[in-house]
Design a protein that fits this description.
Helix content: over 70%
Radius of gyration: 21 Å
Number of domains: 1
Distance between the termini: 66 Å
Number of strands: 2
Strand content: under 5%
Strand order of the largest sheet: 1-2
Largest sheet: 2 strands, antiparallel
Order of helices and strands: HHEHHHHHHHHHEHHHHHHH
């Protein structure tokens, strides 16, 4: 919402954008897994939202920003119709893929430790409940931890957040304005960071857990959703990376062929959250950010173990994997593109260099 405000949206338009994102993400999270029977998970572009904040000076006309969002969606569709691109982003070597995912997950999985120190009264009960149920009923450990966190937030926040939660967003149409300067300064960078910072890592995460996500279906559907949702304030929808690790990991279901059910369930939850966006936003706003991240960190520990194991299982590529992990975990951002992309780039260059053999002279 801060990103939408930064490019000229008023309160109603920003709330409409959040509602639209929830609804569209929910729809694609239900539709594609039902068709392909694999845990295809979608989300809105987090680096894209950060880009909106950084690009706040590019326009105060939200209609021009909407036009840029629509152009971004069209470019994503065109990417899906280009087979060479689909093959490229789904053929990344496993050591690089696993190391990049481990780098993404590592800071999140540290959050429970940080939260236990910074917010002990809220975080320690969450961790204890998770630990007890992980031993007795593993599938319910994370939902129970989330429930305890929500109860703790509600008790410590008092009654102020309840009045904020009563407001319900509505869809607000904004006619797109195609300003060439805004398209160049906002629409094209939004496309780049969404592809490099979300879609590429999303495909990598799926391959790490043994799934081959169909590039054309993923990119065309998310691009169409982005273009359609833009007029209601949605900035960009893409294949998920972090939440994909939740859905595709063994914690979702021991049977690999049944994990798609988790993604469909998340789609239903997105629809419900969208309809109750006022309540959800108020609860999250009342929470210390580290507590929300801590619950996610507990949920992603299994995925971190899987990715670290996959990254280091081949001794020939361990240095490459560690470098990829370190660059990704560093969180650096260069020309607006996040560390996950640069981890893959640097790891790929290093893999080529270390794997290159000098010709032997006769």
């Amino acid at each position: 919402m801060a990103g939408l405000h930064a490019v000229g949206a008023n309160d109603a338009q920003a709330a409409s954008g959040l509602l639209t994102l929830c609804l569209l993400v929910g729809i694609v999270c239900i539709a594609l897994p039902l068709v392909f029977r694999i845990p295809l998970s979608f989300a809105w572009s987090t680096p894209g939202a950060a880009l909106l904040v950084a690009a706040g000076g590019s326009t105060n006309n939200f209609g021009a920003a909407v036009g840029a969002f629509m152009v971004c969606g069209v470019l994503i569709v065109l990417s899906g119709l280009w087979p060479a691109l689909g093959r490229a982003i789904t053929s990344i070597p496993k050591p690089l893929a696993s190391a990049m995912l481990a780098g993404i997950l590592f800071p999140i999985c540290l959050a429970p430790v940080t939260a236990a120190v910074e917010q002990p009264l809220l975080a320690i009960p969450v961790i204890v409940v998770w630990l007890v149920l992980f031993r007795l009923a593993p599938r319910w450990a994370v939902p129970a931890a989330m429930l305890v966190a929500a109860i703790g937030i509600a008790l410590t926040a008092g009654t102020d957040w309840l009045s904020a939660s009563s407001s319900q967003p509505a869809l607000v149409f904004t006619a797109p304005v195609f300003d060439p300067l805004v398209i160049v300064s906002l629409g094209i960078p939004l496309f780049i960071v969404t592809m490099a910072g979300q879609n590429v890592p999303g495909f990598v995460v799926m391959s790490t857990f043994g799934y081959r996500a169909p590039p054309r279906a993923v990119l065309v559907s998310s691009g169409v959703a982005t273009a359609a949702g833009s007029v209601f304030g949605a900035h960009s929808i893409n294949l998920a990376a972090i939440t994909a690790a939740l859905m595709a990991s063994p914690e979702a279901h021991p049977d690999k062929d049944k994990r798609w059910i988790a993604t469909v369930s998340s789609g239903v939850a997105y629809l419900l959250i969208g309809l109750g966006a006022g309540f959800a936003a108020a609860l999250v706003s009342a929470s210390p950010p580290i507590l929300i991240t801590a619950v996610a960190g507990l949920a992603l520990l299994g995925a971190l173990v899987t990715s670290v194991t996959g990254a280091l299982e081949d001794p020939a590529h361990r240095i490459t994997a560690i470098v990829t992990f370190l660059v990704t975990a560093s969180g650096v951002s260069i020309i607006g593109i996040g560390s996950a992309f640069w981890g893959l780039v640097i790891g790929g260059v290093l893999m080529l260099w270390l794997g290159w053999k000098r010709p032997v002279r006769a």
